[in-house]
């Protein structure tokens, strides 16, 4: 079986609870965490260990959950032709069965998806692949069941390529950000290359998406470069995201795009400074109910392993508060030499304002962890929910954390699990899908 080898960079618990003290210095707010034992208990389980066959290998993005409790995700490599796969974990009678929905061929259909598939307004799955397509710059695609009824328990889906990235001014290499939709059904996202140093794009009109508009060309170094994450909307129709590099210190930025064209108007909300507030954000952003912005970085901060941060007040976001700084862990074997051990997956926020994500190379065993940050007494409490060992339980998660209606947490780990020659040689295995039950 042909495959691409990419540089992707014993179950146990290490549960800690932090007491946060807010400190302000030189205009930068810091949330320092003092650790104390916690009585929090959670159950970790592996729902699927990838084999490198049709089910795929080395997932990076996490999963999407439907109303029936089925899980959907992507793998970077593996699949029927070695160029990645889209899979379903079908829930029946409390157990999951893996259903390979689609295997990328590396040709015009795309290759190596790094983001999740998400449900669009019509209930169809949408996503991006980082390579392949007509110009090998990646594609935007949709997946849906075939026209004829499937009489098997496990059924493949049909892929339709909606857009081929041309690799020049139109962008190339869409990576970790999910695509998003506006209220009329247009598609928005980013590509890490093309333009000068990446672009933000809109695909329209809905239903055909045959026209790409470049909303921003991340060209000037002080305006940010290399948008690895996607974008989110505010209530006024502005877009927000992060760039991995660029900015005044070359450590990345948080940006706002205001409708005016195209191109839209880019405003830099924050320039990362490295050791004080973090560096190289690959994760995107989330809003809380009050309109504050939250995000994370892969590196930097006071302990060198990345940060989780808040930008406030809404509308100006002039104050950055570091909610947590991670110690430097092991280098995360991720894509294209991006080696930060911190947070790669966009934060998830629940109705109580708690934040969840994963680190790639931190935790007790330096194979990453799943964590929660909870607002507490004017500060934030950090809870380590699970530490990966790099064995059968998985390792090196760069995953979004997904919550279901019962409060269970789901995600993926890029490595660990089953060993196979069809998996990345850098990740100790083909990766897993996991669940944490509080």
Write a concise keyword list for the protein shown above.
438 residues, 6-stranded mixed sheet, disordered N terminus, Neuraminidase, mainly beta
What does this structure look like?
The chain is an all-beta fold. It has a domain at 18-56 and 178-437: Neuraminidase, CATH 2.120.10. 0% of the residues lie in helices and 40% in strands. The protein has strands at residues 16-25, 28-37, 43-49, 63-65, 71-75, 85-92, 95-103, 118-119, 125-129, 139-145, 157-164, 180-181, 187-191, 199-204, 211-217, 232-233, 239-243, 253-258, 265-271, 286-287, 293-296, 304-312, 319-327, 348-349, 355-359, 369-376, 379-387, 402-403, 409-413, 432-437. The strands form seven sheets. It has a six-stranded mixed sheet with strand order 1-2-23-22-21-20, with no helix packed on it. Strands 3-30-29-28 form a four-stranded antiparallel sheet, with no helix packed on it. Strands 4-5-6-7 form a four-stranded antiparallel sheet, with no helix packed on it. A hairpin with a 7-residue loop joins strand 21 and strand 22 (304-312). The protein is globular, with a radius of gyration of 20 Å. The two termini are 40 Å apart.
Write the layout of secondary structure elements.
Layout: E1 16-25, E2 28-37, E3 43-49, E4 63-65, E5 71-75, E6 85-92, E7 95-103, E8 118-119, E9 125-129, E10 139-145, E11 157-164, E12 180-181, E13 187-191, E14 199-204, E15 211-217, E16 232-233, E17 239-243, E18 253-258, E19 265-271, E20 286-287, E21 293-296, E22 304-312, E23 319-327, E24 348-349, E25 355-359, E26 369-376, E27 379-387, E28 402-403, E29 409-413, E30 432-437
Parallel strand pairs: 2-23
Antiparallel strand pairs: 1-2, 3-30, 4-5, 5-6, 6-7, 8-9, 9-10, 10-11, 12-13, 13-14, 14-15, 16-17, 17-18, 18-19, 20-21, 21-22, 22-23, 24-25, 25-26, 26-27, 28-29, 29-30
């Amino acid at each position: 079986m042909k495959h691409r080898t990419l540089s992707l960079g014993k179950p146990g618990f290490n549960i800690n609870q932090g007491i946060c003290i807010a400190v302000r210095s030189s205009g930068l707010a810091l949330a320092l965490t003092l650790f104390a034992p916690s009585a929090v208990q959670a159950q970790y389980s592996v729902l699927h260990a990838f084999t490198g066959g049709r089910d795929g290998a080395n997932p990076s993005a996490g999963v999407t959950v439907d109303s029936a409790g089925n899980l959907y995700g992507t793998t970077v490599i593996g699949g029927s032709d070695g160029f990645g796969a889209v899979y379903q974990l079908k829930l029946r009678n409390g157990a999951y069965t893996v259903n390979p929905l689609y295997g990328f061929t590396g040709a015009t259909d795309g290759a190596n998806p790094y983001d999740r598939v998400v449900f669009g307004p019509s209930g169809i799955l949408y996503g991006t692949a980082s390579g392949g397509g007509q110009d090998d710059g990646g594609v935007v695609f949709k997946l849906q069941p075939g026209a004829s009824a499937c009489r098997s328990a496990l059924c493949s889906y049909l892929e339709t390529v909606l857009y081929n990235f041309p690799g020049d001014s139109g962008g190339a290499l869409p990576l970790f950000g999910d695509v998003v939709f506006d209220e009329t059904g247009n598609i928005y996202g980013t590509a890490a290359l093309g333009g000068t140093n990446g672009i933000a794009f809109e695909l329209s009109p809905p239903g055909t998406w045959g026209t790409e508009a470049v909303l921003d060309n991340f060209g000037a170094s002080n305006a940010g470069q290399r948008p690895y994450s996607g974008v989110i909307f505010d209530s006024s129709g502005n877009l927000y995201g992060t760039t991995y590099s660029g900015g005044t210190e070359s450590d990345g930025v948080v940006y706002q795009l205001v409708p005016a064209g195209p191109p839209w108007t880019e405003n830099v909300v924050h320039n990362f400074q490295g050791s004080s507030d973090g560096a190289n954000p690959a994760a995107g952003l989330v809003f809380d109910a009050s309109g504050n912005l939250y995000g994370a970085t892969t590196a930097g901060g006071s302990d060198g392993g990345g940060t989780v941060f808040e930008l406030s007040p809404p509308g100006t976001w002039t104050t950055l508060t570091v909610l947590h700084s991670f110690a430097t862990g092991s280098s995360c074997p991720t894509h294209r030499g991006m080696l930060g051990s911190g947070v790669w997956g966009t934060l998830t926020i629940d109705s109580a304002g708690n934040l969840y994500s994963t680190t790639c190379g931190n935790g007790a065993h330096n194979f990453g962890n799943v964590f929660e940050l909870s607002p507490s007494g004017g500060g934030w409490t950090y809870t380590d929910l699970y530490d990966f060992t790099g064995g059968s339980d998985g390792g090196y998660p760069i995953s979004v954390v997904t919550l279901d209606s019962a409060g269970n947490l789901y995600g993926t780990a890029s490595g660990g699990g089953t060993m196979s020659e069809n998996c990345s040689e850098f990740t100790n295995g083909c990766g897993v899908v996991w669940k944490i039950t509080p």
